[in-house]
Design brief:
With about 230 residues, the chain is mainly α. It has 11 helices and 2 strands; from the N terminus they run H-H-H-H-H-H-H-H-H-H-E-E-H. Strands 1-2 form a two-stranded antiparallel sheet.
Length: about 230
């Protein structure tokens, strides 16, 4: 039986520990180090989100970027007030309808149908597509500028006279107000029709139909009586 001296045993233990440490260092996986320096870092993902916030147009939209920026600028609060001050009343009204229809996902014919019925000028295809290409969240905020414009309009009017309603379209307000200009003076409302919800066609208002029927009856009575008294002037 051989007895290993204690001094040799201590040297062997030290050598074994050093060997195991070197081996462990060699086979240590470097995944953790690579994971810390992954090419898809948090900074890169944040920069992508920032780019999305700065871009006003919808991704993949094939439109004229210059026209989109121009139409977006016209929907700004300051630009709307400037157009109104310059007397471009109908233009402001047309922009409101076009923006709301585009935001709702409707097409150009639906927008121009409302615009022309209220006496406005139809929006072009290029302008409508430019408005529609604006991000929905940004377009929604720009639509709120019309509410601020209505408050601005009402602030310059005396008392509660001729105020525009919060839910009233600007073009409708302008169309009604044009009947009270300096050239035409005050006049009675000539709106004797309304748009039917069933076929989108004009129908005679019931109150107007009643007045017309009353006039016809009165004329008929006058003609019937005049048959017995020819001397009545016709």
């Amino acid at each position: 039986m051989f007895i290993i001296p204690s001094s040799a045993l201590e040297q062997f233990t030290v050598l074994r520990r050093s060997t195991r440490t070197s081996v462990d260092m060699e086979i240590e996986p470097s995944n953790s180090r690579k994971w810390k320096h992954s090419p898809i870092s948090e900074d890169n993902s944040t920069s992508l989100d920032d780019d999305d916030e700065e871009t006003e147009t919808e991704s993949g939209a094939d439109v004229n970027e210059d026209l989109t920026k121009a139409m977006s600028k016209q929907l700004d609060k300051g630009e709307l007030k400037k157009l109104w001050t310059d007397g471009e009343y109908k233009r402001v009204g047309c922009l409101e309808i076009a923006a709301k229809e585009a935001h709702a996902g409707n097409d150009l014919p639906a927008a121009n149908s409302k615009i022309t019925m209220l006496g406005g000028t139809a929006i072009s295809i290029a302008e409508f597509e430019a408005i529609k290409s604006i991000k929905k969240s940004i377009l929604g905020r720009k639509i709120k500028n019309f509410a601020d414009l209505k408050e601005h309009i009402n602030s310059g009017l005396p008392g509660d006279l001729f105020h525009i309603g919060k839910n009233q379209l600007v073009l409708e307000y302008v169309n009604h107000g044009l009947r009270y200009t300096k050239t035409s003076g005050e006049c009675l409302s000539q709106e004797i029709h309304f748009i039917s919800k069933h076929n989108n066609q004009k129908e005679l208002r019931l109150d107007c139909a009643h007045m017309i029927w009353h006039i016809i009856i009165e004329i008929f009575e006058l003609l019937r009586v005049s048959a017995f008294w020819p001397s009545i002037e016709r």
